[in-house]
């Protein structure tokens, strides 16, 4: 019967995908623009990458543009990333370009998927695997389980590197710090929290603060500023895109080192 074929096919396909990604090179927590960019560049280099997004659709805050006006800005430095993703843009004035937020977000998702990134939506990362004083994976559950505060045990995904791309909340870094009595690679050893909006400063610090903050755990995008006390930037996305590319380069370099 067609009804049984449809259900069986979906279950067989999904659980095969899930089983094949119980151990990966890189876990990306959060499917915002920086996480999508990072996952794309890592997958293009042959790494096995799984991306976990809490919401129904990846893309983060990029879909809505500015105050639901679906246009966003990017500075000239980030144009090579847009070209890699085949995203169209228009020059606004010297050094600044606009693009349609729906087109841009769709392109990030599509190109990351085409590069080999496996995306799991409606999932949430509630903890990390902590082995030998290193982040070695994630503790995974369904997003509705967390939202409804249900007591349902999770599954574990092992990884050689984890990216916290959870945005303003920097959930993974906060959980790691809170539960393990460790020092992060910040000025105080703790999560400093995000500062108020300062666009020029934020675009710079988003990239500067993109780094490994603890063995095995990296931050990118707004999570990098929230962890290190950087500024918020508003509806300009060049720093976010360049942060994703930077963290991919850092991880690729580290994973290629002899173990």
Would you kindly provide a written description of the structure presented here, covering whatever features stand out?
The radius of gyration is 18 Å and the shape is globular. Strands 1, 2, 6, 7, 8, 9, 11 and 12 form an eight-stranded mixed β-sheet that branches. Strands 3-5-4 form a three-stranded antiparallel β-sheet. Strands 10-13 form a two-stranded parallel ribbon. The chain is an alpha/beta fold. Strand 4 and strand 5 form a beta hairpin. The chain has one domain: FAD/NAD(P)-binding domain (3-Layer(bba) Sandwich), CATH 3.50.50. 39% of the residues lie in helices and 26% in strands. It is built from nine helices and 13 strands. The N and C termini lie far apart (52 Å). Helix 2 packs parallel to helix 4 and helix 7 packs parallel to helix 9.
Structure, briefly:
The protein is an alpha/beta fold and 259 residues long. It has 9 helices and 13 strands.
Features:
259 residues; alpha/beta; FAD/NAD(P)-binding domain; eight-stranded mixed sheet; three-stranded antiparallel sheet; 9 helices; globular
């Amino acid at each position: 019967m067609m009804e049984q074929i449809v259900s069986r096919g979906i279950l067989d396909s999904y659980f095969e995908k899930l089983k094949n990604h119980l151990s990966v090179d890189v876990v990306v927590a959060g499917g915002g623009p920086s996480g999508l960019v990072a996952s794309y560049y890592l997958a293009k280099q042959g790494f096995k990458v799984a991306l976990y997004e809490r919401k129904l659709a990846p893309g983060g805050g990029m879909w809505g543009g500015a105050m639901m006006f679906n246009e966003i800005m990017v500075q000239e430095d980030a144009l090579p990333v847009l070209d890699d993703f085949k995203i169209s843009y228009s020059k606004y004035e010297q050094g600044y370009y606009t693009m349609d937020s729906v087109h841009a977000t769709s392109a990030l998702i599509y190109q990351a998927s085409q590069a080999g990134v496996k995306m799991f939506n409606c999932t949430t990362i509630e903890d990390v695997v902590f082995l030998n004083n290193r982040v070695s994976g994630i503790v995974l559950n369904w997003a509705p389980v967390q939202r409804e505060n249900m007591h349902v045990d999770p599954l574990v995904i092992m990884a050689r590197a984890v990216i916290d791309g959870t945005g303003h909340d920097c959930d993974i870094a906060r959980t790691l710090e809170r539960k393990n009595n460790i020092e992060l690679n910040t000025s105080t050893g703790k999560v400093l929290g995000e500062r108020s909006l300062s666009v020029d400063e934020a675009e710079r610090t988003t990239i500067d603060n993109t780094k490994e903050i603890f063995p095995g755990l990296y931050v990118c995008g707004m999570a990098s500023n929230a962890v290190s006390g950087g500024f918020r930037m508003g509806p300009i996305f060049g720093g976010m895109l360049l942060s994703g590319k930077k963290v991919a380069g850092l991880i690729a370099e580290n994973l290629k080192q002899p173990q």
